[in-house]
Amino acid sequence: MADNVTSLFRSTAAHSPSMAALTREGGDGAGPVDFCIPCNPYFPTPEMFEDMGARLRDIITYYPSSADTITAELCSLLQLPPQCVAMGNGSTELITWIDHLMVRESLAIPVPTFGRWTDQPMETGKRVDMFPLQESSGFALDLAQYAEFIRARGTRVAVICNPNNPDGGYLHKHALVQFMDAMADLDLVIIDESFLEFADAEQEPSVVQEAMLRPNVIVLRSLGKNFGLHGIRFGYLVANPALAGMVRSMLPKWNLNAFAEHVVFMLKNHGAEYAQSLHQVRRDRLDMASHLAQLPGLTVYPSQGNFLFVRLPVGAEGTVVRDRLLTEHRILVRECGNKIGSSSRFLRLVVRPQVDVRRLVSGLEQVLYGSRRGAAVPELGTGTNYSSGTAAVDRLVSSTNGAGVPGLAAQAMAAPMPAASQPQGGGMPMPAPVPVAPAAAAAPAPAPMPTPMPTPMPAPAPVAPPTPTPAPAPAPAPMSFPSPVAPAAAVVPPGPTPPGVPARGGLTAAQVRGTTGPGLTPAPATGWPNSQSWPNAAGMGQVG
């Protein structure tokens, strides 16, 4: 039975197996304690579930209302104009349509990140320029360096996830607005705010209002994650009416199901419970980070999502830890070896109530250290530190990517990088490039990045979780971004990059997996608020 359960992970290349599959293979009809799927454990309330259960027959028997009706109700709740919103059957449906309609040639994305932002464009033959987040900088995204990366490669679409998945890295609203303005000449800038309602670094972190005023910005929001209902599959995007209408026009009339309709129309009566659930998740995040940081050799990275990114002790192999936690302790965790830019030494752990966290910590102690602390799990004899599975790049481009025809990748890397150029051919009409004036003075150096939570090696005695002292999160200093590069005389034809060849001076798959490409230096810190300076939970708090 244990072999059947763990084999499910080897047959799912990019994501974890579904809870339904794990429950079926478990044999007893009960699923594990879930530290893998990042959804709100406190919402909906038990009363809301009872209401849905009482109306289950009608919900699954009859057609739902049209997507326009459901979208109008959601917009009334969020105080957004319906013409600027498109609702999808999960954010993945919206990502798919954004790729088909608006990504003409290339897309840039920091990695590691949500897998559909790398996989979807590659599946349709687009070039994906992956900007590696550096472990030495705590996986913080430096926007100025990211902008330089985009200009150097001539990328036409830029994506930022805020907070990022899997590390929970957060960017302040002011810095994101600066970036959006600096990239006004791109075809599209996408800000994925799927986990933003769990953030408390500033009171109004979303850029949805700014997106509606700009010609090339889309903000993606999730509903399943923050409402604790992944299985319903609903999410939405916010943009100017032209962009939102373009996506909306392609969606089926009944792309939203009756469960989604029922929940959306329930929300106006449960705003207080929803706000309290977010507040509790933020408190649990601090408590959980404190307990995990006590494990010797385990590194916990600061997060503004409803999950924590952790690095296992030296010698521990993530797939072994994952499989043993599941089979021996019935605990499901997300091992991140199949995320591009990560490795099997990292886990993403969803924030859960304290009683579940105590079970997780106990399981990790037994799996990592056995009867004596300090004896970490040995690495697999035949494995690597990437994963027992296959990387998404190898899956989607080909098994030769990163190696390719002998000497081909080396020749391409040695060749001079061509100047960025505007792709030719058709596609959706976009605004003319907007020149960006260089900053009058150089931007001040970013604030130093705090070292991830220290992990003492002696076995600590159980202690009560500390009570953090809230303090305002530091606002980022203004930064300068590179101006758009003028098109070169020789135009590089658009189209997917051949396997094994860097994308216009970009990175091959092998380079993304753990090495830094030529000319890329570790990104400096960006002034991340540490656990002692996180402010009181404020979040969005607009629902209800």
Automatic annotation (TrEMBL):
Domain Aminotransferase class I/classII large: 71-362
Chain spans, region Disordered: 516-544
Listed CDD domains: AAT_like
Keyword Cell division on entry: no
Pfam families attached to this UniProt entry: Aminotran_1_2 (PF00155)
Protein's UniProt keywords contain Transcription regulation: no
Known cofactor(s): pyridoxal 5'-phosphate
Keywords: Pyridoxal phosphate
Listed Gene3D superfamilies: Aspartate Aminotransferase, domain 1, Type I PLP-dependent aspartate aminotransferase-like (Major domain)
Low complexity composition bias: residue spans: 516-529
Name of the protein in its database record: Histidinol-phosphate transaminase
